[in-house]
Amino acid sequence: MTKNKVILDFIDQYAKLMTPDNIVWIDGSEEQKQRLTEEAASTGEIIKLNEKLLPGCVYHRTAVNDVARVEHRTFICSRTKDGAGPTNNWMEPQEAYKMLDKIAEKAMTGRTMYIIPYSMGKVGSPFAKYGIELTDSIYVVLNMMIMTRVGTDVLDAIGKKGEFVKGVHSKVQLDLENRYICHFPEDNMIYSLNSGYGGNVLLGKKCFALRIASYQAWKQNWLAEHMLILGIEKPNGEIKYITGAFPSACGKTNLAMLIPPETYTKKGYKVTTVGDDIAWIRPGKDGRLYAINPENGFFGVAPGTNMKSNPNALASTRKNTIFTNVVYVPKTGTVWWEGLDKNPPTDAEDWKGNKWYGGMTDADGNIIKGANPNSRFTSPAINCPSISPEFENPEGVPISAIIFGGRRAKAAPLVYEAYNWQHGVFVGSIMASETTAAATGAVGVVRHDPMAMLPFCGYNMADYFAHWLAMGKKLSNPPKIFNVNWFRLDDNGNFIWPGFGDNMRVLDWILQRCEDVVDAVDTPIGYMPKPDDINLEGLDFTKDQLVSILDCDKDTWKQEAQEIENFYTTKFGDTLPKELYEELAALKKRLV
Ligand code: SAT
Ligand code: MN
């Protein structure tokens, strides 16, 4: 397939170590995909679904102990501990290689090693970067064929550029105690053992496109971010692009695919989707930022996805999709998850493979959920009805606004705007959000998650902040920066803001601010909308409710500022860029 010696030596090294019975090159062809699908179906690794109702779709269950990213077992193995910084787990690289090699020894005996050449970004785009993943999982191959651009043209492209990210994955024994997701940024290398779950094993995604790429971006003057990219087409045909950073399972896919409320669609507004998870962003010659989505598909959270919350995502899953850890209905060859509709199957299997029916309860009368809360669909981007015509644009799309957002029951208002780039970097750095099922560990605990990159920054986060600050200085026309929070709760624990499609009303204000056509209220935390400037037409939502989430309670924010100071000083101390301490001091002053 290739004569490139670096590639061949890499494969040879790990084939000798892991001793697979066979080696198969993945060429990206439909025919090979069909063959692998049949093979995986014959061993039970996947189940083929109803060809009429869900053509080309398959179902997969991961091991019960392997359903989410494992942050405590994820390492940045930079040469120095400082290179990984205070927010990452670190292991000395030679020690890590030694330990991993030992676990990987003969791990593929009796198995096949698949070689996946893939591209993040369209092959040949100035943004594109290439990788080769070795894996013993057909499930991984099939997912990578959706999430990335797989094929022999990648080998030609590597041949010319000579650079690629090495990825080694083996399920080994799916042993939790020996599960490691290790990154060697200085070696362009990812080594993932003992898992078979999405973010741990689809090495093009978080491991490459965020952890390794963020390091490369730091060195090469660009940004690799945990951001969706959407386009808003206005009635006059003009399209403005917004990127948004939100932690995992906080609605990036829903925002990226939103359908505006009727008051907007009637006028001719339309939202198009460029990406739902990752943005690679570069300065353009015109002093603006340009973004591409390096992925080729969506790895979305299934529960809660329905015709009302996200019809575009649901439509994306109707063909050529891999469903993981949702409910399986053998009789019809279909799938189901909580929040899909109000008609759960009566005769099904839950994500663990146990007999299950809607409304089933345990001995204590508690409802047993059929789908894992982090169950997923892997769907080709081209399936999405709202996919942007610019999705494949090799030059990317120009960014008008950057949004940061977390899941916060209190404190953070619906939306506010940063004063300038430096203040915007501060706003991103103080992001906090309640944890979700996307990673193992407790759910619902507020933690600091700067720029939604806490689990994904492949180098020292203090350097990452400095890099953001430096990027801004190079831009003559930087995007404006905003913070949003769709998740404020009332005293009864209900969401106040309707969210989903109605988030368009907030995006509308954001665009108006970018175009300088609407005033704002200057508050201690930033510019906030005048309540009259958020369009509530056609919405059952009172001005009082709106005012209640467009607040900046000084006492709450004084506590918040203290919390930020603790985070800054205990995590980063004097390694944190002084500009951020200055922004914190200025915030405190405005709160007096
Ligand atoms: O499992 S993934 O890391 O790919 C998804 C996510 O957590 O955002
Ligand atoms: Mn994500």
Can you describe this structure?
This protein is an alpha/beta fold and 592 residues long. The strands form 7 sheets. Strands 1, 4, 5, 6, 7, 8, 9, 10 and 11 form a 9-stranded mixed β-sheet that branches. Strands 12, 13, 14, 15, 16, 17, 25, 26 and 29 form a 9-stranded mixed β-sheet that branches. It starts with a helix and ends with a helix. The site of manganese (II) ion (MN) has 3 residues, from loops.
What's the alpha carbon Rg, rounded to whole Å? 23 Å
Strand content: 15-25%
Structural class by helix and strand composition: alpha/beta
Total count of strands = 31
Largest sheet: number of strands, sense, barrel closure: 9 strands, mixed
What is the CATH C level class of the largest domain, in words?
Alpha Beta
Output the number of helix runs: 17
Question: What percent of the residues sit in helical stretches (DSSP H or I)?
Answer: 25-40%
CATH topology category name of the largest domain = Phosphoenolpyruvate Carboxykinase, domain 3
